[in-house]
Amino acid sequence: MPGYVVVGTQWGDEGKGKIVDVLAKDVDMVVRFQGGNNAGHTVVVNGEKTILHLLPSGILSPSALCVIGPGVVVDPKVLIQELEVLASHGQKVDHLRISDRAHLIMPYHIKIDALQEGRLAQNKIGTTKRGIGPCYADKYTRIGLRVGDLKDFEYFKMRLKSVLAIKNEIITKVYDEKPFDYDELVETFRNYKKVLEPMIIDASYHIDKALKEGKNILFEGAQANMLDINYGSYPYVTSSSPTSAGVLTGVGIGPRALDHIIGVVKAYSTRVGEGPFTTELLNEEGENLRTWGNEYGATTGRPRRCGWLDLVVLKQAVRINGLTDLVLTKLDVLSKLKEIPVCVSYELDGKSIDYLPSTTAECERLRPNYVLMKGWQKDISHIKELNELPKEALDYIHFIEKESGVKIALVSVGPDRQDNIITKDFF
Ligand code: GDP
Ligand code: IMO
Ligand code: MG
User: Fold this and answer.
1) Mean pLDDT over residues 103-132, rounded?
2) Can you tell me which atom of ligand 1 is nearest the CA of 44?
């Protein structure tokens, strides 16, 4: 069955949005399966930039039906705003559907996210403060409200009443803050219902049917392997599974539907928020990467922490996601460098290791072992064919392929939809 997955292999912001947009013209559906508007996926078409937070990055391709899947957490306010902005730019937006099973991010989730981060003080996670963690927490403690609940508004009101009583108790007693007003929330969500109800579907059912009809479906990951709730650098992670395994539970399909599992890897590393980052550069080299790569968060605007490519991290992503292909992005950003260090293993307490330890304390003690690659010191952003790349850039690509054991299907050399060297025909 023709299922395509695009996932991040590092700490997010690898350029997943761009790649999903490139592939979207050849698929029938683009489906988000986890996360929420903590994501910021940038698509650039003829120099015009669009940042998508909740809408799938296929939305700019009118032929691809876009679906917000069951595993996503949806802030209706953000979603409606995103739709309005796109529509005001003359974009078609009637090809969006939302799963009835997706959970609603409520205003109290956003509030609690910020309050908890404040209370954690120097131990904070550095979340996007979009209410992601508190919303997923409610889902798993079974006091969440779902998009489909809006259809039966009396039921929604009844559930909200009992849940809000608990939330207000936490907000007032634990955090000494003002409670949320039930009637106000009811009116706000009555308005959201009017806009969203026509788009609500049973996504798992429709996606399974489309797969059986042989349609091409692209599952768009948000965040990345190192932010995975199980295998990321816990607790500095997000609250969902951004891996290929997350597609199965986040959409409601079986594993055999996934044919092509495409990992997006940036030619160097970035991270937003707190947590260990072994190849981080806290010097001018890091500042250069930030400037050349314009590394500022697409969601929060925070400067991204920058460092060299870490192949131990990439290999963990290959293993956990079962990657079949890689897409290498932002190779153009390295073009000024004379030498490019690539981390191939770590030193931990005097021992060489090639895996990521599970504890923060161990991860903080890791020291990178680098291989020095030669830079190419030429602009490559106009190149469309692999064999036109300088030898040093080809060596960089081949080294990543050899170490990871996965072929690179596309090399991205600029932010625009057109700036690609395509080495494999997916369709
Ligand atoms: P995502 O979250 O994985 O979709 O990535 P983001 O959109 O948050 O961050 C990637 C940034 O890099 C965006 O500003 C993209 O426009 C930009 N970008 C993507 N691919 C390339 C590339 O190959 N070269 C350059 N210079 N920029 C790129
Ligand atoms: P895309 O899809 C980069 C990070 C946050 C924080 C941690 C937890 O654009 O790659 P959360 O708000 O999810 O509870 O924050 O995860 N984070 C991201 N970092 N890209 C993202 O998404 C991210 N989504 C969350 O900075 O460290
Ligand atoms: Mg991003």
Assistant:
1) 98
2) 16
Catalytic residue among 28, 41, 100, 149: 41
- Reduced to 3 states, what is the DSSP secondary structure of residue 329? strand
Instruction: Give the span between the Cα atoms of 195 and 212, in whole angstroms.
Output: 31
Smallest CA-to-CA distance from 273 within 250, 247, 303 is with 303
Query: pLDDT digit string (tens) for 333-392?
Result: 999 999 999 999 999 999 999 999 999 999 999 999 999 999 999 999 999 999 999 999
Q: Looking at the whole model, is its pTM more than 0.90?
A: yes
User: Are 77 and 339 a contacting pair, CB within 8 Å?
Assistant: no
Is any atom of ligand 1 closer than 6 Å to the C-beta of 35?
no
Query: 3-93+202-422: which CATH number, 2.60.40.10, 3.90.170.10, 1.10.260.40, 1.10.10.10?
Result: 3.90.170.10
Residue span(s) of the chain under CATH 1.10.300.10 come to: 103-198
Give the residue, out of 109, 123, 128, with the most ligand 2 atoms within 8 A of its beta carbon, to mutate for a pocket test. 128
Task: Let me know if 181 is a catalytic residue.
Answer: no
Q: Which long-range contacts (CB under 8 A, 24 or more apart) does 281-290 make?
A: 281/306, 281/307, 281/308, 288/336, 289/333
- Which atom in ligand 1 lies closest to the alpha carbon of residue 411? 23
What is 103-198's CATH number? Answer: 1.10.300.10
- Whether residue 214 contacts residue 80, with contact meaning beta carbons closer than 8 Å, is answered with no
CATH 3.90.170.10 in the chain: give the residue spans.
Answer: 3-93+202-422
Mean pLDDT across 226-243: 98
Residues 8, 63: Cα–Cα separation, whole Å: 25
Q: Rounded to whole angstroms, how far apart are CA atoms 70 and 399?
A: 38
Length of the chain equals 427
- Give me the residue label for tokens 């559930």: 159
